[in-house]
Amino acid sequence: MLYVPFWATYVFLYTPIVVVVVMSFNAGKSPFVFEGVSLRWYATLARNADIREGLVNTLIVAAGSTALATVLGTLLAVGLARYTRSRLLDALGTLPAILPDLVLGLGLLVLYATVKMTLGLHSVLLAHTVFGMAFVSAVVRTRLVHADTSLEEASRDLGARPLTTFARVTLPQLAPGILAGALLAFTLSIDEFVIAFFTAAPTTPTLPIIIYSMVRFGVTPEVNALATILLAVSFTVVIVAQRTTRLTESLF
């Protein structure tokens, strides 16, 4: 009886996901009545030009923002942990991850309008870099807590320059945290809707914006097929991240 609430919670959370996956293989047009197994909606999805455009835009934004957020977030984490003890800077570093997406998106839109920046993929990329950097910094700082500072001190005592110590001693120790932060930033960028909705141009929608425009008129098997693909990608990313992190930890 003690496990009943536990399993009930899992059933409540994952039953809708299972229904979406099953209905994505529905041969009929109804999203609620299963009429047989078919891959027709995956073929329809592949022929959808809007979906392909949104996917390309999303991957461009996710790849670019992940690269920037990983570099800036790692430097921010090292700076906050090793070179300053300011609570104000700590708060400002984590603020983009705490602020509601609505507030952050609206604030960035006002900023872009103030500096007269045109909207497009570059504006979404910069916006995703802002909040992705905060998550990377948080993950890397957690890794820094377990880093052996004596190795860095030994490197400096042996005459290594600060940059050499950082590149050859600090970074290898932080590699699992950096990788985890990068994968987290990439996943969040792909799924993010609100900030992209405020900062994207109408001519360059991301995939979540296109999905939103599709579901406004009701859920279709085509949307179920897209959700199933995204779910499979998410599971793959999580598994790869776990395996890679364990491999990196064993190496360093």
Task: Describe the structure in your own words.
- The chain has eleven helices and no strands.
- By secondary structure, it is mainly alpha-helical.
- It has one domain (59-251): MetI-like fold (Orthogonal Bundle), CATH 1.10.3720.10.
- The radius of gyration is 22 Å and the shape is globular.
- The termini are far apart.
- The model has no long low-confidence stretch (mean pLDDT 84).
Summarize the structure.
By secondary structure, the chain is mainly alpha-helical.
- The level of helicity is over 70%
Overall shape: globular
The main sheet comes to: none
* Fraction in beta strands: under 5%
Helix-and-strand structural type: mainly alpha
The SSE order reads HHHHHHHHHHH
| Gross CATH architecture | Orthogonal Bundle
| Mean pLDDT, all residues | 84
Provide a count of the helices: 11
Using only C-alpha atoms, the radius of gyration works out to: 22 Å
Distance between the termini: 44 Å
CATH topology: MetI-like fold
Uncertain runs: none
For this structure, what is the CATH class? Mainly Alpha
What's the number of structural domains?
1
Beta strands, count: 0
CATH superfamily: MetI-like
List keywords for this structure.
11 helices; MetI-like_sf; mainly alpha; transport; Bact_Polyamine_Transport; 252 residues
